[in-house]
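Researcher: Let's continue the batch. This sequence belongs to N-(5'-phosphoribosyl)anthranilate isomerase, and it's 216 residues. Same format as the previous ones, please.
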Amino acid sequence: MTHRTRIKICGLTRDADVRAAVEAGADAIGFVLYPASPRAISLDRAAELAATLPPFVTPVGLFVNAGRDEIEAACAAIPTLLLQFHGDETPATCESFERPFIRAARMAPGFDLVDFALQYASAAALLLDAHVEGYGGGGKVFDWSLIPPSVPAPVVLSGGLNAANVGEGVLALRPWAVDVSSGVEQAKGIKDAGLIRRFCEAVREADARLEDAATR
Ligand SMILES: O=C(O)c1ccccc1N[C@@H]1O[C@H](COP(=O)(O)O)[C@@H](O)[C@H]1O
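Model: Same format as before. Here are the structure tokens for N-(5'-phosphoribosyl)anthranilate isomerase:
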């Protein structure tokens, strides 16, 4: 296969939803460690859920302007945790944990993504989300034409994705990965196994179409 788009499902709070995401083929599972979010869970709960993940499925901790102690405690409790910085964290802060991290970029007209990528050059990937009030998880699609033709970092496409639009995003933008929260939910923090499965199937169908086009 020429390209296998990685899938991250974010904002999980329940064991059954974690199982559904893993069974559907998710590569990464996100836990919101941002107390102001309706999807927030405690670090103890995130560690419990992370302990149920099989090998090769990555737990991701989402932080928004968290204190150093909080992030260090999460790294200690979940040794394989990938950090997702979704607030106003500086490059120096993101790097200071000496852990792989992904950095959210809040996409809006005038935002210079290439400059942002250069500033956060040590990020494992940039997660492109819509610029919404409350930092993220708003289920809002941003204008994909704001993404420059070449971004010097792996891109995680996010913001308002669902089973109906993710295929188009994969075909048009060929991101390294996609990330979804609202689009696979019944209510905030309560996922829907059917929507998760359909989301993952839509990504795989788009991957297969890309593969087909590449081998013609
Ligand atoms: O999920 C939240 O509540 C949240 C809060 C603060 C920052 C980010 C948040 N979620 C992340 O936002 C993107 C897009 O989510 P959606 O699919 O549009 O709902 C995703 O990475 C969420 O994990």
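Researcher: Any comment?
Model: Strands lie at 6-10, 28-32, 58-63, 82-85, 101-107, 125-130, 155-157, 177-180, 185-187, 190-191.
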